[in-house]
């Protein structure tokens, strides 16, 4: 028995045979005597009009537990680039937006079919950085891939995607710094910013396109956006024209919703607005939006007041 595989089995607290069963994602259906061998199932996320549905491949309960243990005991030892701001503990949307505040020009690029473009070879090269034996690296790769791809829906996939992109992030991040540009990446959304002259001189779209193509990725050209200071500059939902802030419409919506809840009661407010949400769930959602506003601007007295109002409504609801 390979000692590294035995070590993995011991750390994950799962027998070796079961690990191999969980890693065998392409087991022929005729050999699957019961549903327990179905390691993944499909979940469709409906995103509304004008947006394509998201198709997730979600692991079964045992495989999901094993993947979470893999994260905690192995993969979190591998650190993503500082330019990568999604799916990281202690890093927020604000960290993604702040470097671009007050810039003359912002360019936003989107990587097409991001997770589906990450194949098992890319994952294999990430696993090699754990310095385990080849059989152990192959096993870990198979435990984290499905049909030779990185599955959206697996808890390991976001962190692995960041690790796959680490060399790209570091190279283009250093290059941007040398050329007076700021760079951050939030999952498949890349943001660049600087003066209009520096952005134009850099030809950054062409450079990013070429670098991504070498890796096996493509830009979604339809989502390439140039934003000047004469427009509202938003990065991952945060307005950055001067300093990070909520948009005027977002602030107005929170202000209006809290007002109606105080005047008509939560249920009355929901009825007037034609929403069928449960009052408690709605208040938690509203509280989350206010918390996000305070995360961006912790000294905003207006939002602090709304936070207290909604907390009081929730406390009264529990009495």
Q: Could you explain how this protein is built, in words?
A:
This protein is α+β, with helices and mostly antiparallel strands and 319 residues long. The protein is 48% helix and 12% strand. It has 14 helices and 8 strands. The strands form 3 sheets. Strands 4-5-3-6 form a 4-stranded antiparallel β-sheet. A two-stranded antiparallel sheet has the order 1-2. Strands 7-8 form a two-stranded antiparallel ribbon. A hairpin with an 8-residue loop joins strand 1 and strand 2 (54-59). It starts with a helix and ends with a helix. Mean pLDDT is 92; it is low at 27-36.
List the helices and strands and how they pair.
Elements: H1 3-12, H2 16-23, E1 40-45, E2 54-59, H3 61-73, H4 93-97, E3 105-110, H5 120-127, H6 134-143, H7 157-164, H8 166-178, E4 182-186, E5 189-194, H9 196-202, H10 204-215, E6 225-228, E7 234-235, E8 238-239, H11 248-264, H12 266-272, H13 279-296, H14 301-318
Antiparallel strand pairs: 1-2, 3-5, 3-6, 4-5, 7-8
Helix pairs in contact: 2-6, 5-6, 5-7, 11-12, 13-14
Mean pLDDT: 92
- Major beta-sheet overview: 4 strands, antiparallel
CA distance, first residue to last residue: 60 Å
Low-confidence stretches: 27-36
Estimated helix fraction? 40-55%
Please give the radius of gyration in angstroms.
Answer: 23 Å
Shape: globular
- Biggest sheet, strands in spatial order? 4-5-3-6
Number of strands: 8
Structural class: alpha+beta
* Percent of residues in beta strands: 5-15%
The SSE order reads HHEEHHEHHHHEEHHEEEHHHH
């Amino acid at each position: 028995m390979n000692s590294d595989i035995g070590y993995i089995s011991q750390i994950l607290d799962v027998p070796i045979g079961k690990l191999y069963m969980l890693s065998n994602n392409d087991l022929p259906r005729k050999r699957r005597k019961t549903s327990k061998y179905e390691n993944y199932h499909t979940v469709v996320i409906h995103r509304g009009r004008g947006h394509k549905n998201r198709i997730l491949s979600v692991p079964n309960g045992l495989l999901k537990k094993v993947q979470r243990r893999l994260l905690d005991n192995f993969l979190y030892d591998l650190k993503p680039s500082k330019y990568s701001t999604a799916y990281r503990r202690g890093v927020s949307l604000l960290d993604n937006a702040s470097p671009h505040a007050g810039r003359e020009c912002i360019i936003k690029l989107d990587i097409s079919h991001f997770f589906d473009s990450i194949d098992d070879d890319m994952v294999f090269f990430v696993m090699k950085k754990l310095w385990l034996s080849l059989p152990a690296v192959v096993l870990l790769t198979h435990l984290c891939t499905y049909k030779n791809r990185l599955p959206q829906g697996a808890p390991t996939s976001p962190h692995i995607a960041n690790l796959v992109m680490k060399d790209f992030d570091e190279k283009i991040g250093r290059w941007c710094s040398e050329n007076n540009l700021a760079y951050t990446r939030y999952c498949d959304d890349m943001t660049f910013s600087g003066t209009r002259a520096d952005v134009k001189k850099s030809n950054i779209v062409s450079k990013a396109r070429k670098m991504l193509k070498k890796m096996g990725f493509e830009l979604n050209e339809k989502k390439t956006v140039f934003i000047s200071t004469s427009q509202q500059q938003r990065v991952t939902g945060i307005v950055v024209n001067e300093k990070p802030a909520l948009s005027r419409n977002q602030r107005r919506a929170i202000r209006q919703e809290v007002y109606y809840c105080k005047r008509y009661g939560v249920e009355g407010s929901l009825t007037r607005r034609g929403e069928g949400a449960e009052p408690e769930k709605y208040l938690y959602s509203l509280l989350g939006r206010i918390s996000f506003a305070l995360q961006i601007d912790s000294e905003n007295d207006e939002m602090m007041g709304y936070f207290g109002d909604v907390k009081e409504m929730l406390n009264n609801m529990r009495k």
